[in-house]
Amino acid sequence: MNPGPFLLLALLALAAGVVGGPRFPRAWLGVSLTASLAGLAAALGVLLGAPDWEWRGVWRLGGEAIHLRLDGVSALFLVLLSLVSGLGALYAREYWPDAENPSSAPRGRAWWSVLTLSMGLVLLAANGLHFLIAWELFAVSAFFLITLDARGRATRAAGWLYLAASHAGTLVLFAFFGLLAARTGSWDLGPMRDQPALASLLWLALVGFGVKAGVFPLHIWLPSAHANAPSHVSALMSGVAIKMGIYGLVRFSGWLPAPRGAAWALMGFGAASAVLGIVFALAQSDLKRLLAYCSVENVGLIAAGLGGALLAGAGNEAAGGNLLLAGALLHVWNHGAFKALLFFGAGAVLHATGTREVNRLGGLWRAMPWTASLFALGSLAVAGLPPLNGFVSEWLIYLGLFDAAASRGEAAGPAGLTAILIATAGALALATFIKASALVFLGAGRTPATRHAHECGALMRGPMLFLGATCVFLGLGPLGVWPAIARAAASWGGALSPVGEPPVALAMLGRAQRVLAVAAVVVGGALWHRVHSGRHRRGVTWDCGYAAPTARMQYVSGSFAGIVSGWFTWILRPARTLRRPRGLFPAKAFHLERVPETVLERVLGPVAAVFVRASNAVRRLQHGRLSFYILYVAAGLVAVGMFVWVGSLR
Amino acid sequence: MMNPILEMPLRLAVWLLLAPLLPGIVNKVKAWVAGRRGPPVLQLYFDLAKLWRKGVVVSTLASPGFLLGPAVAWVAVVGAALLMPLGPSLAGAGFRGDFLVLIYLLALARFCTAWAAMETGSAFEGMGAAREVSYAVLAEAAIIAAVLSLSVQTGNLSLSTMLAPAAGAGAALLAAGLFVVLLAENCRVPFDDPNTHLELTMIHEVMVLDHSGPPLAAILHGASVKLLLFSVLLVQAVLPIGQFAPWAGAGVLAAGVLGVTIGVGLVESLLARLAFRRVPLLLTTAFLLCLFALLAAWKGGPS
User: pLDDT tens digits for A591-647?
Assistant: First the structure.
């Protein structure tokens, strides 16, 4: 199957979406879904065995002939892009309707199409210059989507921060592509492993793409941007946009000769991201901010797997390396699926209650049973628990790390350490998502905000159901996706022999997952039947004999996360304001706690403050008084004259 | 090797039927140390039978997850147990990486228990769930370090081959580390006191305060299977079970498990519960013990 016509169809549909989207919402939905289906068809065609697709145009853009390529790696990411952008378009129709947002909804549709189109072009571009153009378009359109509702101060600040951080990354990428073109003599991109002189350039790529991917400590823009964007945008950003950074990392670590240090760095920063990302997530009480930090964790997991694969490739341990690479690539899909699901769920909660603050929610399962159960499913998946998809990719990564450790090769020590760190991150993720889903959906409602909550409609529920089903399918049938992953891994181009047959253990794992799922359903049904066929009644929760319990006495975010945040105060640096009750009739007492973004507020903030102070000092010279300006000029002239005179004396 | 069609039901029967014996033995040991007669060894069987016949009170706040949580947790624990080999004669069909499935099934059980606890909206149960999931972070790191040391020692990645030989140089460290993890994961003294019913001081017991009848039976039975699972893991990790003749291996395993159970009982009789701020310290010690076992395995060379 030739993917060309499908890609052309997707391109035309998205272009039509950009032009006509603002005016014709129904037609826009139609073309967006068409583009998604066409993109999906093209990408799946390549993943399921069609040869790589390559196309060179006769037109020139910026002096370079247009060159597009769809191979296994780009197809893998294109599947995710098509899926989430299509579902997001559906979701947005109910979540961000024209009736409530007369000015921002039409704008949002056009930018959504631009964003989807530019991300698709990033994946297809096989020319460095065009890659940069698409990359910039992608960054800018994402900015306009994040600030779609720019009335809030926090949203505007988040948008600017995103734009600044994104451009800092783009600047590094300019240097990267520029130097690459200078050293190879051409902007064309492709495998260049035979040119050892290019090895040092990979460091630039790591930083530039690392900013977009949100690897710790380059993640500073991510939490606020993902939290403040409209939820369908958050889903696309967290599910797909940060994967563009991962795409860059995967792409160029495979195409360029990889220095060993870069592999160590990927693995080390990946493992650190995994642990610290989830620690920050656990400490958050804003549901969407929590999900955003969790993306840092998952990106770290992918980066660690990729770094491990590079190391294994350098050390000739193909078996373990293949597992790591496959795990990292599969986790790209898995994270895209469950994180989009969770952001859609968070959006439904925000839509129904008007707040993202988990300490104000509670007991929503009664009003929103669908959202509650799908969010629970997503929580199980993101915590990496069997029998869902998150576990499969984590299992592959673990197995690769254990392989490296047990073989006692060069990478054995760091692999073992990474395995322990990932296990810690996994246990922390479990704590985080128990907290998130339980505080929002279980117990009693904490504030009046929960009283008028309502279930979301079919257009919001449908995408969530689809993503939930994807999580279940990827978990129960891991063998089914193996060919696609193997195809992507084969076109990675790194120093690993192509991934062939699926490991036997993966088949066993799939069987174990299916047995577990069936057994859980059977036993759950049996216990349910047993309870409901016998005597059963409802009673109040046992409250230790207390006479007047209130919903505010339930555990909240801070109390749930208290033990773990206590271990990590060295990095969390929570800002606390405490006023104890005083006197016989205490009037007012409170305890406020806020967890700042440490890297941004405690490291970059002070550094930036020094710059601002220095600039302010310099600015005093610029006061607008003409006489002083004349003095500056005169002093300058005298100085130059002195300089020349002293020089002529020598 | 046994006929696989026969083996599975046999292993299932061993796990399901023998597990409730262990808490009985622990209680008998405690009674013996204290000079009491104590409840019969089979007390938990009677309790389970009684609970299964009883009715259920469900909190007005609870969703269906309150009942499904214990069911899924029980399935997860039993599933984890079925992955664990029972000596050379009942090793089961292992696969590479099955130990990870085992560890994550226990995590699934933890998720479900904590979920069901949070269903009630009780601050006590929130407290218990928070403690359970927080301390599990350290316990999980320790377990991964322990299995890592076993896989480095044997160069193997499936439970049946990892657990067959002796633990080698770091055996004593590994045994100590895993024993502490066993106490923590099964909520025994010095981490938790299964005897008290003072909510403020408990971890696991406080999470199941609002459960009653058949779901409580599933929770109690699951807890006993988990205790047996950790004892079997500890014994097989340390002793070279794989080198015995099949039935001798089973005998050694049974004796080892009995020894561990008596050890739990003795610890419970002789130690007081730790203050909560000391708990992370002890768990970190367990993690370090497992880490040193890993280093010992590393330096010891392949077995």
Answer: 888 888 888 888 888 999 999 999 999 888 888 889 989 999 999 999 999 999 998
pLDDT tens, residue by residue, B94-151: 888 899 999 999 999 999 999 999 999 888 889 899 999 999 999 999 999 999 999 9
Q: How many domains is chain A built from?
A: 1
| Residue A624 lies inside a defined structural domain of this protein | yes
Chain A residue with CA closest to B77: the answer is: A516
A116: DSSP letter: H
The residue of chain A nearest to residue B155, with distances taken between CA atoms, is A406
Residue A541, min C-alpha distance to chain B (Å): 5
Which residue range is the domain that position B202 belongs to? 4-29+40-300
Long-range contacts made by residues B271-278, C-beta under 8 angstroms, separation at least 24? B271/B189, B271/B190, B272/B189, B272/B190, B273/B189, B273/B190, B273/B191, B273/B192, B273/B193, B273/B201, B274/B190, B274/B191, B276/B131, B276/B201
Residue A611 lies in a domain: yes
Domain that holds residue A630: 598-649
Contacts of B122 in chain A (CB under 8 A): 541-543, 554
With b meaning 16 or more CB within 10 Å and e meaning fewer, what string describes A257-281? bbbeebbebbbbbbbbbbbbbbbbb
In a domain, A626, yes or no: yes
| Residue B124 within a domain | yes
In the chain, the amino acid numbered B100 is: L
**Predicted model pTM:** 0.94
Q: Which residue among A383, A406, A515 places its CB closest to the CB of B155?
A: A406
Question: Mutate which of B48, B51, B75, B201 to disrupt the A interface (most A C-beta within 10 Å)?
Answer: B75
Assess A561–B contact: CB distance below 8 Å, yes or no: yes
B217 vs B67: CA distance, rounded Å: 12
A 10 A CB-CB count for A374 gives 23
Q: Which residues of A touch B218 (CB under 8 A)?
A: 527
Q: Would you give the DSSP letter of residue A554?
A: S
DSSP at A411: T
